[in-house]
Amino acid sequence: MISSAITRTEEAVRATDDIAPLAVPSLSVLDAPNDEGGRIVLTWTLSPSDKLLQGVIAGAIGPAAVESVVGVHGYSIYRSATGEDEFSLIAQVDAGVASFVDETALNGVHYTYQVRPYDLDNETGSDIEQTAMAVRNSVLDSEGRAIFGLFGADNRIGFDDFFIFADNFGLTAEDAGFDPAFDLAPSEAIDFDDFFVFADNFGRSIAAAGKRVPMLAGLNADARMYLDARTAMPNVGE
User: Fold this and answer.
1) Are 143 and 135 in contact (CB under 8 A)?
2) Within this chain, do residues 115 and 228 fall inside the same structural domain, yes or no?
3) Which of 3, 108, 157, 221 is geometrically suited to a Cys-Cys bond with 152, CB 3.0 to 4.6 A?
């Protein structure tokens, strides 16, 4: 009887999967709506390999010649910020999951994303890359009034926000790169209606962090604070 040599090992041994999962067919990346910024939502179409696949056992015959193999074990989320040359892994989700919220994005920064399916031995790269930025679209000024058009990283609507808005002007819902965050007068198009809303808000600022202390008659109306640094600073010649 002819038999192959036997190698004994104390650790579990499994076959190597030489077939990588198929890439995700589509990816959408948008600002998370109705928030205070810092969040970008990713949605994608599951890999066609994200299911139980039928694998043939080499040399086997009979009903047990075929076994089920998990095609995808999860998805890796990669991100690259403006000015960065390489993508960095920021998260992984399980098989069957088709969305992810990046809650570590900085406001006013463009991020490009990739979603790569993986199994136990392989990770499939992707030619699909989508870019978005986090926007503060639910913020108030010091008087509690809503502000629209704060796209940049600072707390005031200025020319930096205008240039960001201008980059998106003219896009419609049918265009790649359209983000409802810039559709200030919702119409599935970024047009002059949105520009007029932006113009009405130009120059406004969001409320500063912290608690506002009201001036109460009889308590702090005459309060004053003075700073005298003479005793803490050396005199000339000393």
Assistant:
1) no
2) no
3) 108
Both 176 and 97 in one domain: the answer is no
Residues 24 and 123 both lie in one domain = yes
The per-residue pLDDT for range 26-72, each reduced to its tens digit, is: 999 999 999 999 999 999 999 999 998 766 555 555 555 566 788 99
- CB-CB contact of 160 with 154 (8 Å): yes
* Cβ atoms 76, 21 nearer than 8 A: no
Cα 237 off chain centre by: 58
The dihedral sign for the CA sequence 185, 187, 189, 193: negative
* Structural domain boundaries enclosing 38: 1-134
Torsion angle in degrees (nearest 10) through CA of 88, 93, 94, 95: -70
Q: Which two tokens stand for residue 95?
A: 């098989």
Residue where one domain finishes, among candidates 104, 134, 164: 134
Does pTM surpass 0.90?
Answer: no
